[in-house]
Each structure stands twice: as C-alpha cells, then as structure tokens.
Design a protein that fits this description.
The complex is a heterodimer of chains A (406) and B (198).
Chain A: H1 14-29, E1 34-37, H2 42-55, E2 59-65, H3 73-82, E3 91-94, H4 96-103, H5 109-131, E4 135-137, H6 142-149, H7 166-170, E5 173-175, H8 183-192, H9 197-200, H10 220-237, E6 244-251, H11 260-271, E7 278-282, E8 287-291, E9 294-305, H12 307-313, H13 317-330, E10 334-343, E11 350-358, E12 366-367, H14 372-382, E13 388-394
Parallel strand pairs in A: 1-2, 1-4, 2-3, 4-5, 9-10, 11-13
Antiparallel strand pairs in A: 6-11, 7-9, 8-9, 10-13, 11-12
Chain B: E1 6-7, H1 14-23, E2 30-31, H2 37-42, E3 48-50, H3 65-76, E4 81-84, H4 86-94, E5 98-114, E6 127-140, E7 145-150, E8 158-161, E9 166-169, H5 181-197
Parallel strand pairs in B: 1-2, 1-3, 3-4, 4-9
Antiparallel strand pairs in B: 5-6, 5-7, 7-8, 8-9
The chains are: A alpha/beta (406), B alpha/beta (198).
Chain lengths: 406, 198
Amino acid sequence: MGKRLSVAFQGFHPSSFLSEETARLRELAQDKKVISAVSGGVDSTVATLVAREALGDRLFPVMLDTGFLRVGEPERVKERLGMSPTSLKVRLVHASGRFLASVRGKGTAEEKREKFRETFYQVLKEEAEREGCEYILQGTIAPDWIETQGGIKTQHNILEQVGIDPASTYGFKIIEPLSDLYKDQVRMLGRHLNLPSELSERQPFPGPGLLVRCIGNVTKEKIRVLKEATKMVETSLAPFNYEQYFAAVIENKFAKGHSLETVSETASEALGLPKSEVHADVFEDRVTGVKGDQRCYGLLAGVKLSEESRETYGWLQDRLRQLQAGIVEKFPDITRVAMLVKERRGGGPLSILVRAVSTRDFMTAAVSPVPWKILKDIGQQVLKEETVSRVYYDITPKPPGTIEFE
Amino acid sequence: MTKIPVVYVKGQYNHLIVRNLKELGVESKLLTPSVPLEQLESMNPDALVMGGGPQSVRSLDHLTGELADAARLIRQARLPMLCICVTHQLLATAFGGVTGAARKPEFGPVEISVIEEGRILEGLKPSFTAWESHNDEVVKAPEGFHVLAKSDNCAIEAMRHDNSPVFGVQFHPEVSHTLKGVDLFKNFLHIVEEHKRT
C-alpha cells in the first residue's frame, strides 16, 4: 500500500464527526430506546460507542450467536466488550439452531445471504420488542450499501437500500451512524474513542460469519472443519499484519462441460511450463466475483503444478498473478483462481482455501504474498482433518474476485 | 472552496471519488445523473467528475436511464470534466467515437504507458500501475480528442479533448491500489483552478 497510507486524511476529523453525529442521534431518537446489534467487530463496536455517547443507558447492546462464529467467539466478545474502556453490557442471544435451519438446503450464495438476513432481523425484532426498543442501531459502513445497491452481494444489514421498509416489515426503524465511512475511517474514530487496538485494528469478520466461507451447501461437517481450519490459518498468519486472512471450505465436485484441457493449457502458457506439469480443475460450486463493476457469480479454477514446479512458483507472486490474469481474461465465467499447496491422495471430499489480502478500504484488494513455507505448514496441519484432501491458496485480487467467497 | 459533484452511475467506486476529492479539500457529494441542467448550474459547480458503472455503452440506443442522463450531462454541461471507466467510454460514444468489447478484458493491476501527459497525467511518465475492471473499451477516440495513454491490452487508457478541459480515463484513479491516482486528481484540480480564473 505504501505511500497512499501516509496521505493526511483531510476529509475526515473524528472529533467533529463525533459531535455532529451524536447531536443527530439525540435529535433522531428523542427519548426512545435503541437496541444495538454488536458482533465484536470494529464497525458495530464503534457505532455502539458513538450511540452511547448520545443516548447513555437508553442503548441496549445484544449479540446474536448465529452458530457461524469462530470457536469460543460469542463468549469472548461478550466478556471483552464488558471490560473497560468499552464497558458495554452485552446480552448474548443463542439462536444457532434457528440460523442453521433457515439456510439448510440453500446452495447459492444469495439464497443463503437472504435467509440469513431474514432470520437475523426476525431474532433482532423479538429482542427489540422484549426491551421496548423502537430503533435498531447497526454498524453499516459505505462498502455495505455500495455493494448491495450495485448488486454485487446482499449484505445482511442492508434493508432500506434494497427497497425493504424496516418499519412496515419488521416494526422498527434503523439508525446507521457510520454509513458514509470506510473501514480505515471507522478505525480512526475507534482510536479517537480510546478503543484498545485489539478491537480497533481487528480484522473484519462478515456479518453472516462462516456461512459465506462455507461455499455451496451448508453441512455440520463443513462448518466443523471450517472452524478448525479458521483457527489454524488465523494463528499462522496473525504475525504478518495482512488486513484480512481466513479459510474457506468447498466440496471436491468439479464442473463438467468446461473444457478442462483448455484451462490447463492456458495455465501452462501463462506460466511458461510444459503441459505435462500443469493440471486445472474447475469446481462445481460457484463463488462471487466482480468483473467490470458487475456481479459475476462464477467458477473457481484450482491449478495444480508438479511438485517440483510448485516449490519454485509458490514463491513467485508475479508469476502467480500472470497465471490468475491469464485464466480470468480468457474464460468469462471463471472468476477466481487458486493454486494447490498440498494434497493427500485418497483423502476426504473437501478442500480448504487460504485467503490473505492487503487493502485500505476493502473496495479493492491485492493478494498478500504469504511465504510458501507458511502455506505448506498450514497445509500440513489442515490435512490432518480426515475429511480434507486438498489445500489451496487463493491468488485472485479484487477485482475480479471479492474478498469473501460468497 | 472548489465545488465538484460526482455523478453517480451505480459504480462501486463512485463514492470513493467523493472521498478522494474531500481529502484534497474539495467540496463534493454524489449527484444523480437525472439532475436538470438548471439545477446543476444553480449549484455553481467548478467541474464534474463522472464515475464508472456496470453498464455497456457500445451503442447510444440502448442506454440505461442513468447513462442516457449522463450522456446528456456530458453534452450540455460546459464545465471541466473527468470521466472514469464506463463514462470514459460514454464520452467516446457520445462524441462519435467507438466503444466495443475488449479483446482482452482487464481486472486488477495493469501497467499504464503514458504517451503524452496532456496535463492530466503530469508527472506520470513513463508509466504507472493502475487498477481496472472492464469488459468493454474505447476502440476509436472521437474526433477532436487525442490519446494520452495505453496498456498492453488496451490502446486507449486515457484521452483528452484538444482544446477544452475534458478528460476520459479507462482505469480507476480513485481506488487506493492505484497509488498515483491522487496525483491525477491533483492535476485535475490544478486544471479546474486555472479554468476558474479565465
């Protein structure tokens, strides 16, 4: 990112934002009570702190345990936010059964996101009624409504912008104090509010959580393996300071009809390797991307090099970029490309994907150059899971990919 | 304070243009393209920036409502103008150039070679990296425009009008991964300041 990060942010002053926004919130809410949905992420935490400045004890923070959170996360977040200086008394709502039931049998990304959103607001509405709240406060930021409006993906926290009137549908009104800001501006505001860096600099975690990293159908085993892989990837990559890094899971079912030979050929041309050393698979389950400002719910190509070439090319980020660009430019329905790190012959039916990106505002993202050795270590660990047979490294920037998979 | 509204044609990065301009001390906000000309003029803007969007503008006959309105603004507004991505293509089509399917579409980082700085690309010679996302491209620049930059895949990455401050760029100077994008906006602001004085 380099130079751009050091440019002074002349357009955003946390202190004046705070005084204007708290005045607006007081005016808007009058003497009504407000429920706030927190996740432990920086957006909802900062939004809640801004609202508390304005509303004091008329604000009720709740956290929904959707079942798609990381191992131990609901309890950890509740405890952390309860400590000084945030000192938020968060009520934990257990709803994982309802969320899992609502997405069962839904295979496409948008169906899953829509079902998640429906359940999310249904549960939140019940909580709002219990506390007598007329308003729901949420940490929506600029990319959320921009991507939803642009038809890239349905963000779970967007209603009005897609024509759903929350007042008539759910019986509450929505307040979004951060809707004009980008992530880096939210972090600045968080630092201004004395948020400890473990909260203000935390990597983003999507609202629907692991649901959108569980590509295709949702099963208990996929979610279980994904939780384990998430732990391993987060632990291994934490020291590197990438803006976002995580694991995703996909089934080893491959698209037929797509001329595999041509994809393999394009891959070998892009790398300048003999055909015999390059093999490409195209996965059946689709993944979200964005090509030419348009949502592209496309295919994922998994490229496997011979073991020896893998050792060389795994370190050469420029060549991997050429590999990705060569395939995505040539095949309009392929959105993303991943490179095989490690496999176990005769292993289970699942693949794990490792994703790591550098980004300022999450609107564009470059692939982070994870050292090949670290990727192999992750592969080694993840392959201990019986049901996993392959580990891939996603080499797609945004665009043409998105940061998350669904 | 310099006032530059950004015409919103539903592209993901349109709001980032506003952010860039604000960071450079400009008063800016998103504007829907259907704004009547009189209303636009009553706002006293010093220039216009038009963003990108998901539509195709190979022909003027089947434009979406937004882009038909944007084309009207391009023709009618007598202001310095910077058109990005799809509106760069629209600028070409609207003035008699040709937009077609890209031989090789570009997504993500692309190396841009500067042919002529033409003020808007001042200081960016010989080349810089910009991020792009497009399936179509300008195939032929309209009469009265000349080409300022190209890439390996795309022959017209930037163009300008011969004698008025109207510019089109295929790449996205507003995204943070285009590290020198801020220089392009600064150059545009200098041009706008100068135009204000004359």
